[in-house]
Write a structure and sequence with these properties.
The chain is α/β, with parallel strands linked by helices. The chain has 11 helices and 10 strands. Strands 6-7-8-3-9-10 form a 6-stranded mixed sheet, with helices on both faces. It has a 4-stranded antiparallel sheet with strand order 2-1-4-5, with helices on one face. The structure holds adenosine-5'-triphosphate and magnesium ion. The site of adenosine-5'-triphosphate has 14 residues, from α2. The site of magnesium ion has 4 residues, from α2.
Length: about 290
Amino acid sequence: MTETTSPEQLAASAPAHLPATASAGAPYRAAGPAETSPVVLRLERVGVKYGHRSAVDNVCMDIYKNRITALIGPSGCGKSSLLRCLNRMNDLIPEAAVSGRIYLDGVDINSDAVDPVQVRRHVGMVFQKPNPFPMSVKDNIAFGPKRLGLGSRGRINEIVEGALRAATLWEEVADKLDQPGTALSGGQQQRLCIARVLAVNPEIILMDEPCSSLDPIATLKIEDLMRELVREYTIVIVTHNMQQAARVSDYTAFMLASEHGLHGQVIEYGATKEIFTNPRDKRTEDYITGRFG
Ligand SMILES: Nc1ncnc2c1ncn2[C@@H]1O[C@H](COP(=O)(O)OP(=O)(O)OP(=O)(O)O)[C@@H](O)[C@H]1O
Ligand SMILES: [Mg+2]
């Protein structure tokens, strides 16, 4: 991929036929026949190792466009490690090695021809702790579009307003655009970070426990925002909060590692309603009913 790769170009270079199934027995398709939305991300036998320790093992799953997919499971089961595979953030961890294949719109994101910076543009990320850049509210949003050369100053102003509106933050910060991003409340900072991701027009947004540092009201605002955003974007969220997964997500993958915190795997993947009301695996049931984790 070059600096100018568009989603259309990404799609155009897709292999004609993705395999219909992955390795035997692995959770793969979460959707029933009623799901009309296409697969946007396909994970095939994805693994993550840190040195010799296997943190994630043999994960196969399809992620659907314009849906919220939640990754849940006990601490250390590999949720963040798996999430970081989806936009090549593990590349930035020297001891991390990713195996398997991940297709974004049919393109293998780990192939040599693909630029990780472009992958991260198409697949943005929001972290646990809001991390505004040490600059004004406006410059936080303008930073990405400017780097990508996305237009004149007038156009940048439009992008800033559009992203802040889309993140339901505009009304609260319209008169504070020149103030430091770090001066906003925690919940506002997190929506600023979401707006910063939206400003470069991604296809997918990854969120790693985006509400864990927020109070209940700020949390509900982010959850409402997610349901708005999913009309246009695909969201994958890691959450420890099972009520949150049940409230916001369409699909849920339950992950579990071995007793020694190794080989995190997806144990069960399905429609959120099914996972929470009628889990097929005893381990999923034990987890969602609070028996461990
Ligand atoms: N940079 C790293 N170097 C070495 N080991 C790591 C690194 N990051 C994670 N691990 C290990 O990989 C395993 C999975 O960690 P990960 O952070 O993905 O789990 P998690 O499910 O996100 O946990 P939590 O819910 O606590 O955030 C753990 O055993 C962890 O110690
Ligand atoms: Mg984590």
